[in-house]
Amino acid sequence: MNTQPVLPLPSMLDNDFYKFTMQQGVVRLFPGARVKYEFINRGKHQFPPGFAQALREAVDAMTGLKLTPHEKQFLQVACPYLDPLYLDFLEGYQYNPQEVQIEQHGTELKVHIEGFWYRTILWEVPVMSLICELFYNLTHAQRIIDDEIIECTRKKIERYQSLGVKVAEFGTRRRYSYACHNLVVNALQQHGSGTFVGTSNVHLAMQYQTKPIGTHAHEWFMFHAARYGFKMANSLGLEHWVQVYRGDLGIALSDTYTTDVFFKQFDKMFAKLFDGVRHDSGDPLQFADKVIEHYQRLGVDPVSKTIIFSDALNYDKVARIAEHCKGRIGISFGIGTNLTNDFGPAPMNIVIKMTEALPQDDEWTEVVKLSDEHGKYTGTEHMINLAKTILHID
After folding, report:
1. Would you say 363 and 340 are in contact if contact means Cβ atoms under 8 Å apart?
2. Is 66 helix (H, G, I), strand (E, B) or coil?
3. Strands 108-116 and 34-40
4. d(C-alpha 19, C-alpha 110), whole Å
5. Going edge to edge, which strands form the sheet with 108-116?
């Protein structure tokens, strides 16, 4: 796979599924809300000269993306909980690059996204994937051979098959390239029978006739905190999700304001309404124990529920989790970077996170995320301390 200029994204659906599911919720419940997002360079990567201009050109090229009739038909069949009104909206949607501000100062990159939430929600994942692909191209990273990607992926999925676990691919945002990602999902589909259950990338799910997987992200609850306050963010976020999806897409993300705070509000009603929870930070074995104990305390059989593990997974970590949870609770794994960017160059450690929200015609409110790992906190020190005080987090 030779280094080459980054081409425009292949499809409007080259994005994580939970961006579309959240977008439907925003269109229905919060059409007037505005938000801001910022690029966070956790890995302190040094961007080469001209990077901002190259990214600007790639982002501008996204104006040409439109939902095709074939793509709309796929969503109608594969995702019946996406209602016709939303699909008509998506068919008319067009990226507006003016919502994305890009600057470079020396080796430092700044990206700022601002606008109506129902529009800007789709930018995060494709911008991150473009940053990664451009970075590898412009820094002349190690070239990767197609056959090596296919063989590496085949070996990985066969090892997961030996564990008897279910695996989904979650690697769009930090992939080596689109071409690499395409090869990975193709190989998973060919060699992962009984183990590979789908991908978060809707375009590739359609291309390889597998299931698009995802529900909601941290920003769903972060916005609810700005709109309703930190104490109501989890409960109202969950209630609004149920209001939109009526029992579909029933995996709840638990760590926006720490798992301990989440379970104080994840009562028997939610425990029965939702199919399970997703783990995205902190010790996965401790998390599993907490989840199992919480269901048991509520009189809900943990074996009837599922934990989706999605935090920096590899084979060894999955094997430990599977052994720990065996026979105690349902489990599945969403594996990202270890599938789509594990072929030589070090994967980038970057995120794009919501930083402020304007829920109504009032004033901008800063938002924060308080994961179970302090290193994954996002937000200003003042707002983080305020949230910790209000939620009684040590």
Report:
1. no
2. coil
3. antiparallel
4. 22
5. 100-105, 108-116, 34-40, 351-358, 365-366
E strands of 208-297, at which residues? 251-253, 276-279
| Mode of pairing for the β-strands spanning 330-335 and 351-358 | unpaired
Residue 11's closest CA among 126, 142, 148, 136? Answer: 126
Domains 17-142+346-379 and 146-340 agree in fold: yes
pLDDT tens digits, 160-180: 999 999 999 999 999 999 999
Domain at 17-142+346-379, CATH class: alpha beta
Sign of CA pseudo-dihedral 122, 123, 125, 126: positive
Rg (CA), the chain: 20
Q: Which residue is it, tokens 């720490």?
A: 258
Cα–Cα dist 167/376, whole Å: 24
Query: Tell me: the pLDDT tens digits for 277-336?
Result: 999 999 999 999 999 999 999 999 999 999 999 999 999 999 999 999 999 999 999 999
The per-residue DSSP string of 124-137 comes to HHHHHHHHHHHHHH
The CATH number assigned to the domain with range 146-340 reads 3.20.140.10
Residue extents of the structural domains in the chain:
17-142+346-379, 146-340
Q: For residue 270, count CB atoms less than 10 angstroms from its CB and return exposed for 0-12, middle for 13-18, buried for 19 or more.
A: buried
> What are the angstrom distances between the C-alpha of 159 and each of 95, 109, 318, 332?
40, 38, 11, 15
Judge contact between 184 and 144, C-beta under 8 A.
Answer: no
pTM above 0.85, yes or no: yes
SS3 for 1? coil
CA distance 153 to 155: 5
